[in-house]
Automatic annotation (TrEMBL):
Name assigned to this protein: Integrator complex subunit 4/Protein SIEL C-terminal Ig-like domain-containing protein
A Pfam family matched in the record: INTS4_C
Location within or outside the cell: Nucleus
Location, primary (coarse class): nucleus
Gene3D superfamilies named among the record's database cross-references: Leucine-rich Repeat Variant
Organism: Papaver somniferum (Opium poppy)
GO biological process: intercellular transport
GO cellular component, one term: endosome
Keywords: Nucleus
Keyword Mitochondrion recorded: no
Domain Integrator complex subunit 4/Protein SIEL C-terminal Ig-like: start-end pairs: 832-901
């Protein structure tokens, strides 16, 4: 089959139409080495023939990409292709555009072969520097973007980057400034004080550049390089110079551009040290008396003192009142970082932060609470009674993330008065009454608060001890939140000091024992159930084992989730000692290590089983979960990736607990779980599109892998569920469109014709849906359609179009999925009857073997093309058998099919494991998973597997 395809391609003389076919041969693992060698020789011969013509052919980048694909997918060709392309890159007969494309291919190959990384370092730095001075803007931009991937001396690198901060093209100026920021972090010590001063002064000059992105990048340079100036280079003292840099940054917080203002506040938070009087000035719009006449040097190489301290006046007030939430968030963050330098500044800043807890943006409120958490960790958070009402209001916020962040702060607070302690406990009880699902976290917070405020906790428990008395029938009402608070605080109070345990009535500890499992679940990070039981028994005054002569049943003590033999109590008492190490100052990490070998808690069955809902309740709960998923989008764009992943994992767990009595909503539950997984992939991918300062953990090649997973899961959303309405299908199509734009915005040198055609096709589908629904295109889809129609969607100006697609990405917004109908999940169950390890199916090595399979197909229609895929080894070549309508029979909701299929690829072995699955074929324009063998579907998704 491969020979026939290659024969047709050779006759077409490598036309643009045949490029996709060539690439399919390259990436297909079944293609023989003979054909790969022929493709390699043909492409190499083409380049040699074109060298005298300076390689002006417009398809040259596609051919380079094909060579790159061969090197990545066929390792025996990797090194020879690497050095062959290197000869193109360093040839004087090629133009600079082709040289840059060749270098890009070399870098891509080196990413997949660590042995070639050293070869990249051996490149002649003069060739790379020469490209920096090329007349082509796209060439200069690419070189500066990848400059640090080559080995160039730091001194030369600094001079080159400095020389291009005044480039006529703004994006080149910006990338040069970004390079200077990166250079400052990669070099431990600069010995050239003159270069540092020159870089700083040049960046200050760019504060008045007319392009927003250049001014924002210049701010980063001033922040990083301004703090590197040695003492010998300035007449003022070191502290005066750091204050000068700080005031210089403050001068940009009123810039007309949101991007510039945001970067200014981010940079303020990176300052190493600032004087207290300057910090206090940022919180007051009125110039303070001791700063009215004070001035700082505006530049390093000038003696003119022309930078007034008044530039810092009210800087953070302006930031916290900014109209854009991004700026307010950055101001909150930097405010917290600077509180480390001054207690007085921290106290004054707290008044402003309390007001930000009412901000309409959830992102700002979350950042404010994280700032308070940082201040509490550094012992800079001194709350007063006037603050508590505003702070405790966050405990009943509609956002789960906000409530959780507020409780994290509450764990660290040191409350000065009993009145404030009571109001805090009451705030947690209100949180528990309003959001019962927060119980475990609330109990944990109560535990830490009781440990940190032992005397207050004892007083609170003593006052409310009467409320936990059992009813006249002997039943203990533990669902009362105040009772829960009493029991948890009673457990934690003796940890502050053991004598406090004697001040609490023993009946309180007695009442906590029957509900040990529920409490232990909340305190699972602190102790096991057995340790807590021994702890409670100790303060319950149980000092001997009653009834040793009684039967075994009499020696069992009932606890939640099971029983405990009382003759082991003495042994369990010995486990209390590690728990009480907390009150002696032992770290929680050490405490957890001590408990590592203890038997883990057995939780009550009520925490493990699923809850059965009616169809209406299940549909409502799923829609609420999907609303939470949509609300994470702003957090994804803002870089709160860890918080988003926690929320999405929680949503997945919530979906797993929903069960229904009928099959009507099983499709909806499966769809929702798949949708949550898609958003999780988006959160992981979006990190790669954040500013470089946030990509310190980015792994090479990870983005391509994540994009492939996203495409695959989107394909399952589109083609493994039926019954989607047009309104429900629209946001899925926009997600597919987003996946395409993500690929295009991060491209280097590749054949993008296929991806661009998919974009055009999806835009057409979205337009038709919008016409039927009588709605307008979203801003994201509309701007993309407009840009492609203006640029020409088959235009291959990859380097220039990268800016276009990245700008369009910012317009995307994740829409809330709301379902009001019934979805059907297209799936299959597969089995081979009469086959097990003791009685396997007999076969003759090398000859076909008959395999009888039993399939149960769910919600399959006559429009679905199904195949049976079989392979003798994981990842090997597959054999496909098409399931015709005659074999399937009727198309019901549940259809059982039994048929015999010959397996031809029996290996030469006494036995082997046969892997089989039912797959559904995708349309040719959406191939998310290429077939691993010949004669099968163009793209597919497994519906079942054995």
């Amino acid at each position: 089959m491969g020979e026939e395809i290659w024969g047709k391609i050779e006759k077409s003389n490598l036309s643009i139409q045949s490029l996709c076919s060539i690439r399919s041969l390259i990436i297909n693992p079944s293609t023989s080495n003979h054909i790969i060698s022929a493709i390699f020789e043909t492409l190499t011969q083409y380049f040699h023939q074109q060298q005298e013509q300076t390689l002006e052919n417009q398809n040259q980048n596609h051919y380079l990409k094909l060579l790159c694909d061969i090197a990545i997918n066929h390792h025996e060709f990797t090194r020879i292709i690497f050095y062959r392309v290197r000869s193109f890159a360093f040839s004087r007969s090629v133009n600079s555009q082709f040289r840059v494309e060749s270098l890009s291919v070399l870098l891509t190959i080196a990413e997949h072969d660590e042995n070639l990384v050293s070869a990249i370092a051996e490149f002649d730095e003069n060739v790379i520097i020469e490209l920096c001075f090329d007349s082509s803007v796209s060439v200069r931009y690419w070189v500066f973007k990848n400059l640090f991937r080559f080995r160039i001396r730091d001194e030369i690198l600094g001079r080159v980057l400095l020389g291009f901060v005044n480039d006529p093209y703004p994006y080149v100026r910006r990338i040069s400034l970004d390079g200077l920021v990166r250079l400052s972090k990669s070099v431990v010590e600069f010995k050239n004080a003159g270069l540092i001063a020159e870089v700083y002064d040049r960046a200050v000059d760019l504060f008045v550049d007319r392009n927003d992105c250049v001014r924002a990048a210049a701010i980063c340079v001033v922040c990083e390089w301004g703090q590197m100036l040695p003492d010998s280079s300035m007449e003022a003292g070191e502290q005066d110079w750091l204050d000068s840099v700080f005031v210089q940054l403050c001068s940009m917080v009123r810039d007309m551009s949101m991007e510039v203002r945001n970067e200014a506040f981010v940079s303020l938070g990176k300052m190493k040290f600032v004087s207290e009087d300057i910090l206090l000035q940022t919180l007051s719009k009125k110039v303070l008396g001791n700063l009215k006449e004070r001035k700082f040097p505006g530049k390093s190489n000038t003696k003119i003192l022309d930078l007034p301290a008044s530039n810092a006046a009210g800087a953070f007030i302006h930031g916290l009142e900014d109209e854009f939430y991004e700026v307010r968030r950055s101001a909150c963050y930097s405010l917290g970082m600077l509180t480390d330098f001054s207690v007085r500044f921290a106290n004054d800043a707290l008044n402003l932060l309390m007001d930000m807890l009412n901000d309409h943006s959830m992102v700002v409120r979350l950042q404010t609470l994280e700032t308070m958490h940082h201040m509490a960790t550094c012992d800079r958070l001194k709350v007063q009674e006037a603050h508590m009402h505003m702070f405790l209001g966050t405990l009943v916020d509609t956002s789960t993330l906000i409530r959780r962040a507020a409780r994290k702060v509450l764990c660290l607070l040191k409350l000065p008065f009993m009145k404030i302690f009571k109001s805090s406990i009451n705030g947690l009880l209100t949180n528990l009454e309003t959001y019962p699902e927060d119980e475990a976290d609330i109990f944990s917070v109560l535990f830490y608060m009781g440990r940190n405020h032992g005397n207050f906790a004892v007083s609170f428990v003593t006052e409310l001890s009467q409320e936990i008395e059992p009813s006249c029938e002997g039943e203990l009402r533990f669902d009362n939140p105040r009772v829960a608070a009493v029991l948890v605080l009673a457990i934690s109070a003796p940890l502050a000091h053991e004598r406090l345990g004697c001040s609490i009535p023993a009946k309180v500890f007695s009442c906590a024992i029957p509900f040990l499992g529920r409490i232990a679940f909340s305190l699972r990070n602190c102790a096991t159930r057995d340790t807590l039981l021994a702890y409670l028994l100790k303060f319950n005054k149980i000092t001997h084992v009653p009834g040793m002569e009684s039967s075994v049943e009499d020696d069992l003590f009932p606890v939640a989730g099971g029983t405990l033999q009382l003759h082991n109590i003495d042994e369990i008492f010995n486990q209390v000692l590690p728990l009480q190490q907390i009150c002696n100052g032992a770290s929680e990490d050490l405490f957890r290590n001590d408990l590592r070998d203890l038997r883990q808690t057995t939780f009550p069955l009520s925490h493990q089983r699923q809850v059965i809902f009616t169809d209406e309740e299940a549909e409502k709960n799923v829609n609420l979960i999907l609303r939470t998923v949509a609300a994470t989008w702003q957090l994804i764009k803002s870089g709160f990736t860890d918080e988003v992943q926690k929320t999405l994992r929680s949503c997945s767990k919530d979906l797993a607990t929903v069960a229904v009595n009928s099959n009507r909503l099983t499709g909806l539950l499966a769809f929702a779980s798949q949708y949550v997984q898609v958003v999780q992939h988006l959160a992981e991918i979006w990190v790669h599109f954040l500013p470089l300062s946030k990509l310190h953990y980015r792994k090479i090649g990870m983005l391509d892998h994540l994009l492939e997973k996203l495409d695959y899961d989107l394909g399952k959303l589109r083609y493994e569920f039926s019954g989607l309405s047009k309104k429900e299908e629209l946001p899925i199509l926009e997600l597919v469109l987003l996946a395409c734009v993500l690929r295009l915005s991060e491209m280097e040198i590749c054949c993008n014709v296929y991806t661009l055609k998919r974009v055009q096709s999806n835009i057409s589908d979205i337009e038709l849906l919008c016409e039927d629904l009588h709605i307008e295109l979203s801003e994201f889809a509309g701007e993309l359609r407009k840009s492609l129609s203006e640029q020409g969607y088959l235009d291959d100006g990859a380097l220039s179009q990268q800016f276009l697609f990245k700008r369009i990405l910012d317009l995307f917004s994740l829409k809330e999925m709301v379902f009001d109908g019934m979805l059907k999940h297209i799936k299959a169950e597969l089995g081979v009857p009469g086959n097990d390890s003791e009685n396997p199916i007999p076969f003759v090595s090398g000859l076909p073997a008959g395999v009888t399979v039993q399939m149960t197909l769910f919600n399959v229609s006559d429009k679905d093309r199904l195949w049976l895929e079989m392979s003798a080894q994981e990842g090997g070549l597959s054999q496909y058998a098409f399931l015709s309508s005659n074999q399937i029979g009727s198309y019901d909701e549940i259809n059982k099919v039994k048929l015999s299929v010959p397996f031809y690829n029996t290996p030469k072995a006494a036995s082997f494991v046969l892997r089989a699955c039912v797959v559904k074929e995708y349309p040719s324009e959406d191939v998310y998973r290429p077939a691993r063998g010949s004669g099968g579907p163009k793209g597919n998704s497994p519906l079942s597997a054995i």
